[in-house]
Amino acid sequence: MTPKTLVDKIWDAHLVRPETESTPAVLYVDLHLVHEVTSPQAFAELRNRGVRVRRPDLTLATMDHSTPTTPRSAGRLQVLDVQASAQLAQLETNCEEFGIELFGLDDTRQGIVHVIGPEQGLTQPGMTIVCGDSHTSTHGAFGALAFGIGTSEVGYVLATQTLLQRKPRNMELRIDGVLPRGVTAKDIILAVIAKIGIGGATGNVLEYSGSAIRSLGMEERMTICNMSIEAGARAGLIAPDETTFEYIAGRPFAPAGADWGAALARWNQLASDEGASYDRSVRLEAASLAPMITFGTNPSMAIPIDGHVPNPSEAASAPERVDLDKALRYMALEPGQSLLGHAVDVVFVGSCTNSRISDLREAAAVMRGRRVAAGVRMLVVPGSRNVKREAEAEGLDRVFLDAGAEWREAGCSMCIAMNGDQLAPGQSAVSTSNRNFEGRQGKGGRTFLASPLTAAATAVAGAIADVRTLS
Amino acid sequence: MKPLTSLTSSCVVLHAANVDTDQIIPARFLKTIERRGLGAHLFADWRLDEQGQPRPDFPLNSPDAVGAAILVAGDNFGCGSSREHAPWALLDFGFRAVISTGFADIFRNNALKTGLLPVALSTSAHATLLEQLAESPRAPVTIDLESQTATLPDGTAHAFAVDPFARHCLLNGVDELGFLLEQDAAIAAYESTHTAHVCTR
Ligand code: SF4
């Protein structure tokens, strides 16, 4: 038998109809996650055509993108934005009408869609998972084939639990060795994107492998798979192993009893076979990595934190030069300058990339006994209400509050700046989120993407700082 | 979906690569529950100034852009967020096709599903097109989906690839949902042999 990759195995197991030259494959979807922003028009289409949701039992909705994160008053969130409020109400109506479970604002399990799936044990190895959201790749950390879709496709999945898909190419990203001190999963993925480029994995699914990846915990693996899309990848995934199984065991929606044994037996078959071939392989040495930070206006424009901003005149091609030039102008940076010591106005710790308990612990470890520098605003936004409770039980909220940071309710918040948490024009932020596109965190705002460690060190120093040399 | 078979139009050139969907339509305009009306916010932060007035130096505001149904942009167009609001906004503004050398996967998918044709030309054909449009900005380009060719102002025709199924849907103005709904028996058969991994209720 030809050796298969992890992707081959998941793909083959979900074919309702194989692809032909004239039609893509009909691929079955095991779990469909829904949120308020990309679903209203899909439900409207279903209503127009008189179609029901085929498998509400494989569908879960949450509210995260436009929800407020300001503290609850009398236990309730106040949605002040009229449009956001109407959109949230629409999701409630849709879920009720179509029989879909919703983790609404009052649900104790509410949170960012890519945080709650894994947290609830819904995200499991070997599954196909989709959501109207590009960072659905996060769930690939469990060895699931998980990818973002548009609103039309959200409608197709609601109606038929399937999608028309061409099989993606398969790219291996192997990282071996031991990570140096101060280098985290966020730094790995920023280095990967810088190496292969913003469109470097277009048309591909990325499988991360190697001893450095194996050594990571599940939350770190999620950080890596999360940003696969920033290199253009259709999805990113990691073969499941003991670390994966240990994380899933005992979670609310995880298999239990006899089902657990059967699931383990299935999951243990998923890893790519010895000798399986990839369309392309890229290698990185963990030992050569440093804490990374972006300087530009797309996530591939990243450098080691003690490096220098590149000079557009040395760009490899004319379009690249134009891109770099434009980015440096937007960011108000000079070619060749160091970012260390560059003043910032805001530090944001949160988003589906870095808002889980381990991220908050890392940031808190740096903040403990220190203060947020004068003139800097620091927002810490847990990824879910569960993460928030866990952090509070450990006293992390006190660490942040004592340091002068804001401790918020769960949601996407300043990652996408739809809920009022945003930068003012001209402000700069170090952010643990995933996109530094122009205006992403607020019109005219400037974003430097980095790890929770770098974000916390920057908050303390009041300017971009290297956590390895923080005094 | 409006069918698309062939289109002849002048073009607007956006000299930028890696145009992300946050630029095509900024997130603050995604709080709508409608598909319509998003053209007003297309490239909002590039196209309009602080007062909401058109910036004269932005290509879409040039007198040459009037009536253009084809947008020409740099490589990797539509990267980033999966928001289908991006093609909706382009369509609502009056575009029916985008020419580039490459598209981000999700954008390409979304565009095809909503009736906006992504046309990926070879780097050399794309460069030739830019040269010709620099010389005569209002020169027409013809995109023919039937023959999968783009005919440049100088009359040369260049092939582009489109998935055959997406092409069929666009030519006939039908979406994929009809096809998928017809697969009901096959889907039911799949479900009868594959137990669900989770139950969300
Ligand atoms: S945290 Fe940011 S990237 Fe993640 S789902 Fe929310 S808006 Fe999207």
Can you summarize this structure?
The complex is a heterodimer of chains A (471) and B (201). Chain A is an alpha/beta fold and 471 residues long.
Describe this entry's structure for a reader:
The complex is a heterodimer of chains A (471) and B (201). Chain A is α/β, with parallel strands linked by helices and 471 residues long. In chain A, 31% of the residues lie in helices and 17% in strands. Chain A is built from 15 helices and 19 strands. In chain A, helix 2 crosses helix 5 (151-160), helix 6 (185-196) runs parallel beside helix 8 (218-226) and helix 12 (357-367) packs across helix 14 (396-403). Chain A is globular. A 4-stranded antiparallel β-sheet of chain B has the order 1-6-7-8, with no helix packed on it. A 4-stranded parallel β-sheet of chain B has the order 2-3-4-5. In chain B, helix 3 packs across helix 4. Chains A and B meet through helix 2, helix 3, helix 5, strand 8 and helix 11 of A and helix 4, helix 6, helix 7 and helix 8 of B. The site of iron/sulfur cluster has 14 residues of chain A, from helix 4.
Provide key terms for this protein.
heterodimer; A: 471 residues; alpha/beta; five-stranded parallel sheet; 31% helix; B: 201 residues; four-stranded antiparallel sheet; four-stranded parallel sheet; globular; binds iron/sulfur cluster
What is the β-strand count of chain B? 8
How large is the count of helical segments of chain A?
15
The bound ligands are:
iron/sulfur cluster
Spatially, the strands of the biggest sheet of chain B line up as 1-6-7-8
What share of the residues of chain A does DSSP label as strand, in percent?
A: 15-25%
Helix content of chain A: 25-40%
Poorly predicted residue ranges of chain A: none
Distance between the termini of chain B: 34 Å
Tell me the structural class of chain B.
alpha/beta
Q: Helix-strand pattern of chain B, N to C?
A: EEHHEHEHEHEEEHHH
Beta-strand portion of chain B reads: 5-15%
The residue-averaged pLDDT of chain B reads 97
Strand order of the largest sheet of chain A: 5-4-3-6-7
Counting DSSP E segments of at least 2 residues, the number of strands of chain A comes to 19
Averaging pLDDT over every residue of chain A, what do you get? 97
Compute the gyration radius of chain B: what is it? 19 Å
- Evaluate the radius of gyration of chain A: 22 Å
